[in-house]
Design goal:
There is one protein chain. By secondary structure, the chain is mostly helical. The chain is 88% helix and 0% strand. The chain has helices at 2-30, 34-57, 62-90, 93-96. Helix 1 (2-30) packs across helix 3 (62-90) and helix 2 runs antiparallel to helix 3.
Amino acid sequence: MVLYAVLIVSGFVGVWFLQFLIDWLIISRIMDEPVKGKLLATIFAYFLASLLYLFARNSFSGFAIYLIGAIVVGYLQYRAALKIEARVADEDVAETFK
């Protein structure tokens, strides 16, 4: 039971770290909408972490291990992207270039 808890927590940390790197290095530079970009980065991070686990352990259980972490990270990033969109919507474009 403790082993599964450790795998779930490490899955969350792994997906969160990969999501941060993918979002920061790739997705934020090509996506205009924060919600779609952050969710896309989370999906990429989930599949990347699962495939790395598959290649390292020769087991498909990585897809289940990283799923809970991907759902939690996806929810957190969705909320963060909504805050970014609200902040951008509140900005006055005329004030930006004064």
